Each structure stands twice: as structure tokens, then as C-alpha cells.
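CORE FACILITY INTAKE
Project code: CF-77B
Contact: R.S. (postdoc)
Sample description: multi-component assembly, two entities in total
Requested service: structural model of the whole complex
Turnaround: standard
Below are the sequence entries exactly as provided by the requester. Do not edit them.
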Amino acid sequence: MARGKDVAVGDWFDRTPLIQDQVPSVWVQSVLYKTPVRAVDRAVEALARSAELAVMEDGVCKRVVLSYGDCSPARCLEDADLEGLRAKYGWIVEIRYTWFGENLGSARGHNRLAKDCDLEFMLVLNPDIVIAPRVIQHLLEPFTRTGTGMSEAKQLPLEHPKDYDPVTGDTSWAATACAMIPSEVFRHIGGFDEDTFFMYCDDVDFSWQVRLLGLRVVFQPNAVVLHDKRLSSTGGWDPTPAERYYSAEAALLLAHKWSRPDLVERILTDFEAHGDENQTRAARTYRTRVAQGDVPEPIDGDRRVGVFDNGYYAKHRFEL
Amino acid sequence: MSNYENAFAPDNVYGHALALLLDVLPSGERNDAAIHLDLGCGDAALAGPLVEATGLTYVGVDADGESVAALVRRGLEAHALALGGEQETLEALAGVIGGRRVASISMLDTLEHLYDGTGALRAIRRLAFDNECAAVISVPNVTHRDIGFKLALGDWQYTETGLLDTTHTRFFSAESLERELAAGGLYRTARRDVELEMSDQHFPYSHSALAAGTTLHHLLRQLRTQAAPDENTNQFVWAVAPGPIGDRAVFTAQRNPERPFLSVVMRTQGRRLHCLREALTCLAGQTDEDFEVLVMGHRLEVQQQIGVERVIEDLPKSLRDRTRLVKVQHGNRVAPLNQGFEAARGHYIVILDDDDIPLAHWVETFRRLADREPGRMLRAVAVLQNIDAVETNGQGGIRTTGGIEKLYPSEFDIFDHLRANFTPNMAIAFPRGVFHDLGMRFDSELTTTEDWDFIMRAAVVVGVASSPEITSIYHWWVRGESSRTMHHQREWDRNNGRIVRKLDSRALILPEGSASRIREVMAERDAARATADAAERRLAIGSGVGPDPRNLNEIAQILESRSWRLSSPLRLPAVLRSPSRRVRFSTYVSMSDEDLIHAAEELRRSRSWRLTSVLRRRPAPTGGSAG
């Protein structure tokens, strides 16, 4: 996907609010990876109800299209599954499905899906997320106000601890587990940075790009979704080895891209001296990529947007 | 001759039947122009007192010719007639009645002997209807405590007469009698049952389940008393009136009615609809969908009701179809629980207050526990998280303000729970039988901790299956109104006292392994006492050597504080890893003043002391809050 060029901040701000008199349509996209059919069904049913309320009852949305991209080694949804979904929900949500036949990762998978998006807004959604009935209108609502470039839902049962302004909802970045993005903003930015980020921090990077345009990223606490996250028996968060690896790799790449060489050095030192197996591997990978020139050009040199706070990408209200 | 030679007495079935007849028989009917028809009259024990009290002409009917002949010899009108199908009985009785007016009918301890009881009942219905007369029916109660307790231990003994008469063709409970009467088109209008503390089945005298002094009897009796009425009833004596004929099939119960696995009873006051939306969204995403939701709208005003209905109407269809609003306009916070449990159809029932959050495998985890240990209470783990209300862009929402705090232990421990509740109500599901079969109810006298009371009463009977899995988040409001802010400490203490008194009044069934646990606790107590005694003796000697009592007292205050005791589960893993880390008062008695001051600081810096700081500012987080 072609990446956007510099545009004066004011240009984008002046175009807002992005919803004025027109009723927009929403393109929902999810990347599947070994997602059980029943989980997909639950998610689509919830989306369909939200679409029904947004389109038929509140009239805040004209049309909803759901596009699945499947990164699994074998199809998550067979034709019969798709027929079943379309039979139940096709009257309100047009369902599309593409099997990629390879694990593209989240960023590349979403970019691939977004190529076909011809509607005004994109709702980027994890495939196992069950949205509350009025999420579509709650996420569209901030775009009726000046300056909004991205809106984010609140995840349950574990709300992300990143801080947001309790009055305006302004926040550092939006998790794309469930986030609404104007399609033209997405296209202008060039989508997610698929060359840099495989699994984590693509959404942090994207959010900061939105803010580089002078637009706000807004957290909507009343737009709630269930994201099936579990806790360890001690009440902690137990990431898998893969999650530890990719988040370590993403931390280095994000710090690099957002002009924090000081942090890159500190993280590398920490990983190499005290890190676990995944972190030392991530440090090795990073060094290899730098040696090969396989890292992005740093941006935000004057550090207007990027936030690095004790290993987080926003000020956190508490430790989770 | 009949086996049933029972004389009239005011406190037996004849006395009660006559009293009922006098209650329902208009005074204008009391003359010898009308008859009283006594079906299955036996020795006509009712005859004399009835005639004397009512002036009616007594007419006895019995299948036993010898009994009838004896009555005739006594100068009574009596007819030999076997009660059978409705039509043949009516025709035969028409000959007996002979055009006279029937003022009243009795059929005492007879129905249980008949092969076609329904036919006889329908005949009575027709006569009662045509003559606009009263009828009284009695049958023995097979659910008398004496029969049940013996049967529970495999003992069932017929006798010549009495509750388990060998000639009985059918046995009745109050419920089955009601059904049988309905099948015959008769409905109870009044009752004067015969109560007997010790029935004719109260034998042998020293039977461990029957003898009033045994622990077993005490245990069985408290369960039986709570589970269902009529434990002392020897005979049901009911006045009945004719009505529509019910379906005969209603006499038999449906063995396994279709039920969802779980009923979720969700209290709401409709004040925080965004909380309700959050909780319902989490239910919409459950990995096990075999549950129903009863939203218990408590004292909803019209606008609040509309709001709650709107939230339910918004749900995805599959959940909406399993969700219903039940309005409860009376009572305290206990009322919606009792009404919700009553209406629940699930095999298990769980409470979820509208401001708490289940994880996606909440139902699934309960299911796994039920598969492993059917019929027990199902207990997973809840964690605590602070929340606050926000209004972002003009819309109300919930904002978490603190991390996840695992205050509650991973396993249910009955002994710890005797002291306080470590199980928020959404972390435990009750088998429906606790409410529907054992008759347990939430105590409406309790204004707080009603869940602890119910958990304990049920746990000591059915036991608890535990999973260390964290499946729910108990939200703790840092501001605003909730159960802990609405009630004074005195009220919490009063309620706790009531719960403990109730537990003390019962025989408790403890789970396997309890003997060793009790021995361990007693040994610890003895050791602590011995150490404390030694310390006191040293202090009493007053040699001038030894710590300042004020420093020791400070340690004692921390260790004896409610929050330290409540947080003991937090220290348990460390103690299990290293028993020497168990904090005991005895550890401190020989310390110097300097060490004691340092030790007090260490205790205050400990994780469990810091995590439970909230408990020292407000009551323990034991009750749910409805929003």
C-alpha cells in the first residue's frame, strides 16, 4: 500500500468533522487466524445487531459490509459456514471472505483487506470480539466533532490501563482490537506499517500517524466490547512466548521509528543483559534488521506525538 | 369386621373433619331433612358427634358388608357399596340417597384404598355440585418425617393400619393430593390437618434417625423442616368444592424437564444502565451459551424500567430470547434474589450484579466444575478492581481506576468462610436444588451479607467444588453509593452476628479432610496460648528486662485486625512454600523494643496490609452492590 506524503496539519483538521450532513457507511474488517466458527458466529451476530440498530433504528449508518481475511493454514470458514452466516445475518451485513493462504500478520492482513474498502469508515475489529449493541453509533459519534481522526472502543473484561481524558476521551493511541477509522485517513497514512510491524504496535504507530496529521484519537468508554482475555490464577497477565517475542521486537522498532534512539539503546541493553529467551531473540533480530537496512526512517523528530512512558506508549493509570 | 376401629376424638381425623364441616355447613342446612353421606364410613366414628352437632341424618357407605351390617345393628343407616368409576358410583349412590337432599359429604381415609380414586372424586364432585353441598376428604400423609427419615436409610415397613397400611393403593403428599383432587374436579377451600409429632411409623423407639436426641435426627430435621411443609402431618383433612376437571396426567411429575445449564440472576435498580450494558455484553460473548438471564428490576420507576427494557431489547437475538425482565417492587435487596431464584429454570443459579463483569469462560468454568462434581456449589475466583463513573463526551461510562487485585483465595475453604466471606456472589453458582428442593431462601432480615449467609447454609449441606480459574471481576466503586456505603458498621456487625448464630444453631456437615484441618487449627491454638502465657509470665515478673508492652500491643493490634485476618489467603502461598514464614504473635514476644518497632513497620509495608488498606477505611468487600 502506498504510504502517504506529508500534508500540512491544518489541512486535515480543517476537513473535520468528517461526519456532517451525510450518513456514512461502515466497512468492518477482521483478520482470522484459526478462529473457531462458533466464535465467529457470536461476533457476527453482535455486529449484525449493532448494524441493525445503527442502520434501521437510529439512521446513523447507511450500510455495513464485513470483510474477513483468513491468515490460517486451513480455512476457518468453509463455504457452508459462510452460507450459514449469510443466511442469518446477510440481510443487514454483507459478508465477504478471503483466504490468504499464508500468515500475513495483522498489519499486512488488514492492509490487504482495506484495498477493497470503498466505504467512508473502516471498523478494524478482532475476529473474536463481541461488540455491544450500540457500538457502531458510539464509535461514529466522535466524528461529528471537529478534529477527530480515530475512535476506539473500551475492551472488557480487562480495560486497557492507558490514560485518556475523562471529559473528551483524548488518548495517546487506540487499540485496533476495535477502532473506527475514516477510510480516507487510512488511505492517506498508507494503512498499517506492515513492513515494520508484524503483530504488535502497528496500532500504536498508526494512531500516532493519525495524531501527526493533527487529528485526535478518541477513547469512547461507553462503546464497550468483549475481548476474550483471561487472567492467570494469580491475577496476572501471562503472555505466550510468541506474544513476548513480538511485543519485544515491536518495542524496539517503535522506539526506532519514533525517533527515540536513546530508548532503543536502553531496551537493547536490557534485553541483552537481563532479558528472557524471547527478548534476547528480539534484540538479535533488531540488530540484524538494522544491519540490513530493514528498518523505517525515523519520524516525529521533534517528539510531538510519540509517548514512551516506563515501557508504555501512553501514561498508564495503573499496572495491569 | 373392619380393621379400622377408631373412636371419635376432637384431635383426630374425625374431630377435624367435623370441625371443618361445621365451618362450611350453613346453619340452615342443619336438620334431619337432609343427609350427610359418609363414604368409606368404616365403623362410623363420625356418626354420633355429627348428628349431635348438625342434626343431619347420617348415611354410611362402605364396601365392607360386615361393617355395614354392624352399623345397621347399631341402628344407623348404612349401605354396602364399593366406590368405583364415576358413573357406576353415581348410579349406586342415587339409590342410597333416594331423592333426599345431600347437605354434606365426607370420605375419610378412603381415597388411598381405591383403585379408581379419580372416579370416586368425580362422583363426589357431581353430588357436591348438584346439591351445592360441602365435602371433606382426608388421606394419610406419606411425607411424614417418620416415614421419610427411615426410608432415607433404606427402611420401609408396612403395617396393618396407619400411614403405611398394607391395603393402600396410592400414597399422597399434599402436592399429589392436590393434583389428584384437581383430576377429579375438586379444589381445597380449607384444611384442618391432623398433626402428630410421632406417627404410628415412629418405631423402633431408638432408631438413630427418629430419636429426637440424636445429631442425625437434628440434621435431618432441620433439612426437612426447611425443605417442605407437612413434616408432622399425619393426615390431610381438607374441605373441598367442585370446579373444572383437570388433566389426569397432572398426577405424575415430569422426570427431567428441559432446563438451561445456568440461570443468571441479575439485580438492577436501573440507575446505571451503562453498567448493565457492560455486564450483558460480557454475557453475549460467553463461550458456553447454555444459560438464561433474569434481569431483576428492583423498585424500578417508569423511566428506569423503560431504560432497562431498552437495554434488553437492544441485545442480539440469541441472548435477548434468553433474557427476561422480572419486576420486583417490594422488599430489600434480598427480595429480587429470592424471586429470581424462584423463577430460575437452570440446573444451577448464579447472581451477577449489574456492575460486575464475567470473563468469557465464566459459564464454561462452572460447567466444567458441574461435570466434575455434580450437585455441589460451583466456585471459581473473582478478582477486585476499582472503578469510577465518567462522563465522556456527554455519555456515561465506567472507568477502571486500579489494577486487578486478587484478594480472594483460589480455593473455597469452609473454615475460612466461617469467619468471613471470601467469595463474591458472582463467583459461585448454586445447584437449583438448594433453593427448590432444600427450600433455602435468602434471609430477608439481613440488610447486608445475605450472600455469605446463603453460601454458608448451602455449603455445609451440598459442599463446594472449586476451580482456581479467575472468571469474574468484582467492581469496587471508589465513589458514589453502594452497599458498603449505604450501611453503617453496626449494621454489618449485627448482620454478621445473626449469620453466626444461625450457623451455631445447626448441625454442620463438613467436607472430607476436615478432621485433620480441625486438629491442625487446635494444635496451633494450643501452641499460641502456651507462648502467650509464657510471655505474660515474663512480663508479670517485671524484671525490667523485656519489651515495652505498648510495642507488643501494636503488633497484636495488627495481627488481630479484621483486615489482617481477612487477608490471610494472600499470605497462604508464601506460607505453603515456607511454613516458617507464618506470622504468629508468639514470634514477637521475645523481641527487643527496637526489633518490635521494626517488625511493626515491616508488617505495615507487607503486600497484604497494603492491599487491604481499603478494608480499614470501610467494611469488607463481601456483598455485591446493585446499581
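Facility notes:
- Chain B is about 40% helix and 20% strand.
- The interface with chain A takes residues 274, 277-278, 280-282, 284-285, 287, 289, 314-318, 357-361, 381, 383, 390-393, 395-406, 410, 468-470, 473 of chain B (CB under 8 Å).
Invoice: internal transfer
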